[in-house]
Amino acid sequence: MRHARVLAFAGLAVSVAAAVAFAQTSVVPIPDNAPVRTAPLEGDVGKLACGDPKAGQAKAAACAACHGADGNPALAMYPRIAGQSERYSARQMALIAHGERTSGAVAAMLPFVQPLSAQDMRDIGAYFATQKAGAGIADDAVVSEGPYAGMKFYEVGQQLYRGGDPARGIPACMACHGPTGAGNPGPAYPHLGGQHADYVARRLQEYQSGTTQERDPTLFKIMAQVAKPLTEQEMKALGSYLQGLHDRADDAAAAQAAPAPAAPQPAAPAQQS
């Protein structure tokens, strides 16, 4: 049975737990003598002025056909890009335009991204970064067999996302992507909350394959190392959990903080002549 689930997590305690979970893993960090290289690909999109959301909205008109006008597509075959960080979106467009990301249906994007300048990519990324990602649905069917028997399907993904698996060298996903899946716009770790489950699972499978055409595969290799120990069930469960992960606390707080409707004022007494 499937139910809509609002899986919001916030607070200092959760942030501390994320750091501890990440620190307890055996994943080897990037050595200091091998910094992430940004040129030549990100030399274009990373050294420009921040994108202009207003200009990006006009330039993103073609994106709406697949991804929706606000970055929330009607069909699950297309990823959500609403709420995605500007730099991450711009980098993905640059990778596709340069022929360095070729998986899935990205070939269909070539006619749209190849004419774009680096500033266009930043502007489009800035526009979608201002949009709110839609709510997802997590699968809470009970797993019937295997090591996760008795757990709800999304709970398998939740366990890995929040705590990882130190014994297998899997870090807690939220250490980089945040407890609500909001990502980190600084190092351009992507926003994942509410993303379509099938898309998440497919991307994890691509990382697990260990094959990429990126000229600078540093970031790809980090995710390839994380994804390598995952089973197919775990990748799908992570997708399910992330599909239902979104922070709606701001909406609830806004509703609670809204002022009560003003009481009707009594009518003024009629004046006698």
From TrEMBL:
<keyword id="KW-0479">Metal-binding</keyword>
<feature type="domain" description="Cytochrome c">
    <location>
        <begin position="51"/>
        <end position="132"/>
    </location>
</feature>
<feature type="domain" description="Cytochrome c">
    <location>
        <begin position="152"/>
        <end position="246"/>
    </location>
</feature>
<protein>
    <submittedName>
        <fullName>Cytochrome C</fullName>
    </submittedName>
</protein>
<keyword id="KW-0813">Transport</keyword>
<dbReference type="GO" id="GO:0020037">
    <property type="term" value="F:heme binding"/>
</dbReference>
<feature type="signal peptide">
    <location>
        <begin position="1"/>
        <end position="23"/>
    </location>
</feature>
<keyword id="KW-0408">Iron</keyword>
<dbReference type="InterPro" id="IPR050597">
    <property type="entry name" value="Cytochrome_c_Oxidase_Subunit"/>
</dbReference>
<dbReference type="Pfam" id="PF00034">
    <property type="entry name" value="Cytochrom_C"/>
</dbReference>
<dbReference type="GO" id="GO:0046872">
    <property type="term" value="F:metal ion binding"/>
</dbReference>
<dbReference type="InterPro" id="IPR009056">
    <property type="entry name" value="Cyt_c-like_dom"/>
</dbReference>
<dbReference type="InterPro" id="IPR036909">
    <property type="entry name" value="Cyt_c-like_dom_sf"/>
</dbReference>
<dbReference type="GO" id="GO:0009055">
    <property type="term" value="F:electron transfer activity"/>
</dbReference>
<keyword id="KW-0349">Heme</keyword>
<feature type="region of interest" description="Disordered">
    <location>
        <begin position="250"/>
        <end position="273"/>
    </location>
</feature>
<keyword id="KW-0732">Signal</keyword>
<keyword id="KW-0249">Electron transport</keyword>
